[in-house]
Amino acid sequence: AHGGTILDVKNLQAWYGESHILHGMNFNVNAGEVVTLLGRNGAGKTTTLKSIMGMLGKRTGSVRFSDREIIRATSDEIARLGMALCPEERGIFASLDVRENLLLPPVVRPGGLTLDQIFELFPNLKERLKSQGTKLSGGEQQMLAIARILRTGASFLMLDEPTEGLAPVIIQQIGHTIARLKTEGFTILLVEQKFRFASTVADRYYVVEHGKVIDGFSNADLAANQDKLHTYLGV
Ligand code: ATP
């Protein structure tokens, strides 16, 4: 069962310097959902996540999170409201070991997972606790990147292409992790190029093109929209 709207994005526009990248994004996420932003390379999906997280200098429109307007809030303020971004490049510190990486992001709210709860979700991280960031496989790095935001108390997770560059068996594990996080009550906004993967975890989808949402589907209307999806994504 999903709750009410937790994230409501209206006419979100954003710029990198002089480059106008987002041209009026409109979409929403309900509490407890997994929502996926689909779209080709360069459509503006990553920029959308960064803009929501307060990481782009110039942005206009409205982003309401937990009934608060955050379009002008700083990243720190947004993090303290319980939102976290797991970036595409993962951001694992090579010179730190797994434990140090896990403990790095500050706890921003009560309710974060304990290390024991994290190891229950990611048993191989426990085995690798003393391994340096550089020694981890891509899959382990991705798991660590997700694991450490769970410690912070964030309940709204934005995951930017968590499957990128990973082997099919690891992608499947990431899928199980996302499904598990959903049952634990987390809300997830996912950016994903792999439609087939997305369809194993998402409740709803938005298609992004040229910095705008051009369409939206729920799982129930997927079959009826195969042709459109093919046109949008080439899948
Ligand atoms: P991808 O899967 O390639 O990341 P995307 O949909 O996430 O695709 P974005 O990364 O949001 O796309 O990029 C949207 C547009 O913004 C692209 O045209 C890209 O070239 C541009 N862009 C991205 N980062 C920067 C930056 N730091 N400075 C200037 N332009 C940027």
TrEMBL record:
<dbReference type="InterPro" id="IPR052156">
    <property type="entry name" value="BCAA_Transport_ATP-bd_LivF"/>
</dbReference>
<dbReference type="InterPro" id="IPR017871">
    <property type="entry name" value="ABC_transporter-like_CS"/>
</dbReference>
<keyword id="KW-0813">Transport</keyword>
<keyword id="KW-0547">Nucleotide-binding</keyword>
<dbReference type="InterPro" id="IPR003593">
    <property type="entry name" value="AAA+_ATPase"/>
</dbReference>
<dbReference type="InterPro" id="IPR027417">
    <property type="entry name" value="P-loop_NTPase"/>
</dbReference>
<keyword id="KW-0067">ATP-binding</keyword>
<comment type="function">
    <text>Involved in beta-(1--&gt;2)glucan export. Transmembrane domains (TMD) form a pore in the inner membrane and the ATP-binding domain (NBD) is responsible for energy generation.</text>
</comment>
<dbReference type="GO" id="GO:0005524">
    <property type="term" value="F:ATP binding"/>
</dbReference>
<comment type="similarity">
    <text>Belongs to the ABC transporter superfamily.</text>
</comment>
<keyword id="KW-0029">Amino-acid transport</keyword>
<dbReference type="Pfam" id="PF00005">
    <property type="entry name" value="ABC_tran"/>
</dbReference>
<feature type="domain" description="ABC transporter">
    <location>
        <begin position="7"/>
        <end position="235"/>
    </location>
</feature>
<protein>
    <submittedName>
        <fullName>ABC transporter ATP-binding protein</fullName>
    </submittedName>
</protein>
<dbReference type="InterPro" id="IPR003439">
    <property type="entry name" value="ABC_transporter-like_ATP-bd"/>
</dbReference>
